[in-house]
Design goal:
six-stranded antiparallel barrel; globular; alpha+beta; Thrombin, subunit H; single chain; Pdz3 Domain; 366 residues; 8 helices
């Protein structure tokens, strides 16, 4: 198309009649942006700038952050040369989960504490005391001293259901580290059903893996979903790896908190063996139709222990307890948590190539 043809095409377009009431445009039927009035411009502009993801994060933080507290702990750290007691300070985060001032946090935050102080979301500092802590699950419950149900600024968090979580779901980690109120990081659930070794040596089951960044000051703070419901308790991060952080499922926390409130501790069973995980010969697995291809090899049996009284020997391989398969030491710990103390139960072991059923009465672990 030459220049004359182009000119004829544009000259054929109808001219836009001039009118004082006609909105300003760009000549192609599109209106130019209108100037917002001061009365309506601010709120409308904010709504346009915020997308659905941002609004979801802001809503979750707004609902959950009033429950998040900072915990300052004073622990004994020996004595000075003059004999004066010396203190070591530490701390972390936590969240209020009852209207009368009960707070859920990590065991490693408040373990062996001599004095605890809590800073609420409104900035008030209040003394607190430990109700109980469970190093095996890294959870603890503390209570604000002399807190009332109608205490101003005391807001209980809404607890969710960690069994309803799905991989890829948006979650928000909220903490109150080092006095910086409501530090927020957002991410997604990276994996479910992880296992994490607690500092007591036991295995914590059903741990949530997330890429929401954590730091040591966030320990004990809540992991919440987009509705602001607590679905986990932030507990650990792998420092050399980026984006691998862990939280204990809120369902586990509910169970532990109820036992701590009732008994002050978690009662776990003990049988008195030292063991390690070993594979079981494939022929033995097939012959006895075992559910797992490994078991817990008994390395030694303690004197005057339930295992000794039941007749367990070095070299026995534990493959089941109360009908539940035992694939190794971690499975044995897990099953012993559910077994009732002082009640006779059935222990399935392999002794050389023979399968035996042994009656054993677990005792309470000290």
């Amino acid at each position: 198309m030459n220049r004359e043809e182009v000119g004829s095409v544009f000259s054929a377009l109808p001219a836009r009649p001039a009118s004082v009431n006609q909105p300003e445009g760009n000549g192609w039927g599109e209106e130019s942006p209108r100037e917002l009035s001061p009365a309506t411009g601010s709120a409308a502009a904010d709504d346009l700038l915020l997308d659905a993801y941002s609004r979801a994060i802001m809503g979750a933080v707004g609902r959950a952050s009033p429950s998040v507290v900072n915990i300052e702990v004073h622990q004994a750290a020996g004595r000075t040369r003059s004999g004066e007691p010396r203190e070591r300070r530490g701390g972390g985060s936590g969240f209020v989960f009852t209207p009368d001032g009960l707070i859920l946090t990590n065991s490693h935050v408040v373990h062996d504490s001599r004095r605890i102080e809590v800073t609420l979301a409104d900035g008030r500092r209040m003394p607190a005391s430990a109700i109980g802590d469970d190093p095996a699950s890294d959870l603890a419950v503390i209570r604000i001293n002399e807190a009332r149900v109608d205490e101003p600024g005391l807001t209980a968090a809404a607890l969710g259901d960690s069994q309803q979580l799905r991989v890829g779901q948006v979650v928000v980690a909220i903490g109150n580290p080092y006095g910086f109120q409501s530090t927020v990081t957002a991410g997604v659930v990276s994996a479910l059903g992880r296992s994490l070794r607690s500092y007591s040596g036991r295995l914590i089951d059903d741990v949530i893996q997330t890429d929401a960044a954590l730091n040591p000051g966030n320990s004990g703070g809540p992991l919440v979903d987009s509705a602001g419901r607590v679905v986990g308790v932030n507990t650990a991060t792998i420092l050399p790896a980026q984006g691998i952080c862990f939280a204990i499922g809120i369902n586990t926390a509910k169970f532990v908190a109820s036992r701590l409130l009732r008994d002050g501790r978690i009662r776990r069973s003990y049988i008195g063996v030292s063991a390690q995980t070993v594979p079981v010969h494939r022929r033995v697995v097939r012959f006895y139709d075992l559910a797992k291809e490994s078991g817990a090899l008994v390395l030694s049996v303690e004197e005057n222990s339930p295992a000794k009284r039941a007749g367990l020997r070095d070299g026995d391989i534990i493959v089941a307890l109360e009908g539940k398969p035992v694939a190794g030491v971690d499975d044995l710990h897990r099953v012993l948590t559910d077994v009732r103390v002082g009640v006779s139960c059935s222990l399935t072991v392999l002794r050389r190539t023979e399968k035996l059923e042994v009656k054993i009465v677990p005792e309470e672990a000290k």
